[in-house]
Design brief:
It comes from Marinobacter pelagius. The protein is mostly helical. It has 2 domains: 33-130, Ankyrin repeat-containing domain (Serine Threonine Protein Phosphatase 5, Tetratricopeptide repeat); 132-202, Alpha Horseshoe (Serine Threonine Protein Phosphatase 5, Tetratricopeptide repeat), CATH 1.25.40.20. It is 53% helix and 0% strand. 34% of the residues are buried.
């Protein structure tokens, strides 16, 4: 075998190795997309919680589990809802995220949005058919009850007009009207507006 033939074989083998290396980098970049941090959050949950839309899109393209839950069973969509990241939440819903997924204490994405006074994401969830009347298991509060407790009349109106059940009772046997009446000493405008929406007598 001549020197030229020998070097041709070596270069051909090297080219094949380089092609394989390029394909490896293309299809496997070394990142574990299902790895969990100390709170049990996967990368997509972290990205959604931090409002990183570009990162969420990238992870979806990688085929990550969209409804993976953290240590408390909060999903990426739920974190986006609670954080007020509407675009991310809508993207995850469009990609098939469970709108009524419950974390370990029975909180839903809608409840997360309501508790954190995220009116915009709450409105989207309501429009997309989220369960309005689920009650968490710690104290039996519904989304509407949390809206009343937060003294948020806009949120109360949104939920009431969407058909939320005003007759549900929490773990203490209180309805939303009971919660509103318990605020009688509070004469602020938000509480007055909540009583008006609920039809409570002053």
């Amino acid at each position: 075998m001549s020197v030229v033939e020998r070097w041709s074989g070596v270069l051909g083998g090297l080219a094949a190795v380089l092609v394989l290396a390029a394909l490896w980098l293309l299809f496997f970049d070394g990142e574990d997309y299902e790895a969990r941090d100390l709170r049990g959050r996967t990368p997509i949950i972290v990205a959604a919680e931090e409002g990183d839309l570009k990162r969420v899109r990238l992870l979806l393209e990688k085929g990550v589990r969209i409804d993976a839950g953290d240590d408390c069973n909060w999903t990426a969509m739920m974190r986006a809802a609670a954080g007020g990241h509407r675009e991310i939440m809508e993207l995850l819903l469009d990609e098939g995220a469970d709108i009524n997924h419950l974390e370990k204490s029975g909180y839903s994405a809608l409840m997360g949005a309501v508790v954190n006074n995220r009116l915009e994401t709450a409105r989207v969830l309501v429009e997309r058919g989220a369960d309005l009347d689920v009650q968490e298991t710690e104290s039996g509060q519904s989304a509407l009850m949390w809206a009343v407790r937060n003294r948020n009349p806009e949120m109360v109106r949104l939920l009431v007009e969407a058909g939320a059940d005003t007759t549900l009772s929490n773990g203490k046997g209180q309805t939303v009207e009971d919660l509103a009446r318990a605020m009688e000493a509070d004469t602020s405008q938000p509480v007055a507006r909540i009583r008006e929406v609920l039809g409570c007598s002053p």
